[in-house]
Write a structure and sequence with these properties.
The complex is a heterodimer.
Chain A: E1 5-7, E2 10-13, E3 19-24, E4 31-37, E5 44-50, E6 53-57, E7 65-68, E8 75-79, E9 88-95, E10 105-106, E11 110-114
Parallel strand pairs in A: 2-11
Antiparallel strand pairs in A: 1-3, 3-8, 4-5, 4-9, 5-6, 7-8, 9-10, 9-11
Chain B: E1 9-13, E2 18-23, E3 31-38, E4 45-50, E5 55-56, E6 61-64, E7 70-75, E8 84-92, E9 105-110
Parallel strand pairs in B: 1-9
Antiparallel strand pairs in B: 2-7, 3-4, 3-8, 5-6, 6-7, 8-9
Classes of the chains: A mainly beta, B mainly beta.
C-alpha cells in the first residue's frame, strides 16, 4: 500500500453513460497525476495538478474528460458519454514534487469496462 | 516517446540476481533514471532512482554507467514475487514533467 487510494476499484458501465473516479493522494504531496493504461501497454499520462491548479493536459484528454482537484487534496476524473475505447485502467499518482524527492507513488487503479 | 530502451522479456532463476538493463543514450545532465515495476493488475510500484551515483535501497541496486547512457537494475536475490513488468524511465526535475512509460521488461522468475 503506497498511501494513494482510488475509488472505485472496478467500474462497469454502458456506452454513453458518465462515470467519475476519485483519487486520494498521500496527504503531504502537492502534485497529483492521472494516467491511463490499456492492456499490454505502459501507463500513459493524462493530466497533472500542482495543488488545485491543473497545469498540464495530454492530447489524450479529449473534451469528454474532465479532472478537478478542488481543494488541492483529493481529485476526481470524470468521463462523459463513455465509449468502448475508454475501457482501461485509470491510475492516479502523487509526488512531493521537489528536487530529489520527486518520485511518484501510484494508487491501485480503477479498472473501467465500457459495454 | 519513451527515452529508454529495454529488452522486452527476461528470465531469472529464483534466488539468483536479476540484472535488468536499460539504455538511455540521449539522457541530459539534469535527468534522473527511475525504475518502477508493475505486478499484474496493480499500480506501478516505485523501486529506486538515481542521477549519477549508484544507489541501493532495501529493494534493489541501481548501477549507472559513468557516461550515464545506460543503467542496470539489480534485484540481488530474486523471488517468485518479483515476477513483474519493470519500467526504466528518464525524467527531468523540471516543472510539470510527467513520467513517459515504455513497454518495459517482463521479468519472469522461475522456480
Amino acid at each position: 500500500d503506497t498511501g494513494v487510494s482510488q475509488d472505485p476499484r472496478h467500474k462497469i458501465t454502458k456506452r454513453g453513460q458518465n462515470v467519475t473516479f476519485r483519487c486520494d493522494p498521500i496527504s503531504e504531496h502537492n502534485r497529483l497525476y492521472w494516467y491511463r493504461q490499456t492492456l499490454g501497454q505502459g501507463p500513459e499520462f493524462l493530466t497533472y495538478f500542482q495543488n488545485e491548479a491543473q497545469l498540464e493536459k495530454s492530447r489524450l484528454l479529449s473534451d469528454r474528460f474532465s479532472a478537478e482537484r478542488p481543494k488541492g487534496s483529493f481529485s476526481t476524473l470524470e468521463i462523459q458519454r463513455t465509449e468502448q475505447g475508454d475501457s482501461a485502467m485509470y491510475l492516479c499518482a502523487s509526488s512531493l514534487g521537489t528536487g530529489w524527492r520527486n518520485e511518484q507513488f501510484f494508487g491501485p487503479g480503477t479498472r473501467l469496462t465500457v459495454l | 516517446d519513451a527515452k529508454t530502451t529495454q529488452p522486452p522479456s527476461m528470465d531469472c532463476a529464483e534466488g539468483r540476481a536479476a540484472n535488468l538493463p536499460c539504455n538511455h543514450s540521449t539522457i541530459s545532465g539534469n535527468e534522473y533514471v527511475y525504475w518502477y515495476r508493475q505486478i499484474h493488475s496493480q499500480g506501478p510500484q516505485y523501486i529506486i532512482h538515481g542521477l549519477k551515483n549508484n544507489e541501493t535501497n532495501e529493494m534493489a541496486s541501481l548501477i549507472i554507467t559513468e557516461d550515464r547512457k545506460s543503467s542496470t537494475l539489480i534485484l540481488p536475490h530474486a523471488t517468485l514475487r518479483d515476477t513483474a513488468v519493470y519500467y526504466c524511465i528518464v525524467r527531468g526535475d523540471n516543472y510539470g514533467q510527467n513520467f513517459v512509460f515504455g513497454p518495459g521488461t517482463r521479468l519472469s522468475v522461475l522456480p
